[in-house]
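Re: that chain you flagged

S.,

Sorry for the slow reply, it's been a week of failed gels. I finally had a moment to sit down with the sequence you sent. For the record, here it is as I used it:
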Amino acid sequence: MNDKLGLDKAFLDKENPYDLFNIWMAEAEKSEINDPNALSVATVDASGQPDNRMVLLKGLTSEGFVFYTNLEGKKGKDLKANPKASMCFHWKSLRRQVRVQGSVTLVDNKTADEYYATRPYESRIGAWASSQSEVMQTRGEFEKKIEEFKKRYPDPNNVPRPPHWSGWLLSPYKIEFWMDVENRLHQRLCYSKIGKAWHQEILYP
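Prediction finished late last night. Pasting the structure tokens below so you have them in one place:
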């Protein structure tokens, strides 16, 4: 048990939620079959309609959580209209969940360029060829565009990042850690950011 909060030792006693998140992510990397860095990101469009989809966490800094996407797709348009979002990580193998709420900003070009360069060649070409979220008449239409961009950028070491593709940084003001307990008597630890400091609260299940 966590003597301070009366929680299971898995929560430990971390004043900074990022420290606890890194511990849980490291454990998920050992137990999850696929993509332990997968998360659901929820956005709200200009009309107030919420939406969510799965993406991959590609960076964690002292400022927040980073994922990459086509800026002209649905989520990119939502985030431009309403720069707030929430994330949910769910690790079935551990019976744990982490929810994150905050505001988003674009990462700087240098950061986006550096990450883009690490992607496989086909993925970089796909970023050019995909008109994300737009209607496709046939799959062949997409495949033709892929071949066209392969001809334009035949050198795998020289594929520039598309101007419409970059990363979003979610800077959280709330991070909640959830752990399954039998009979739905779950344990929840919530960190809320007040000023520059994080404050802990335990929540009823």
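What I noticed first: The chain has one domain: 9-116+163-203.

Talk soon,
D.
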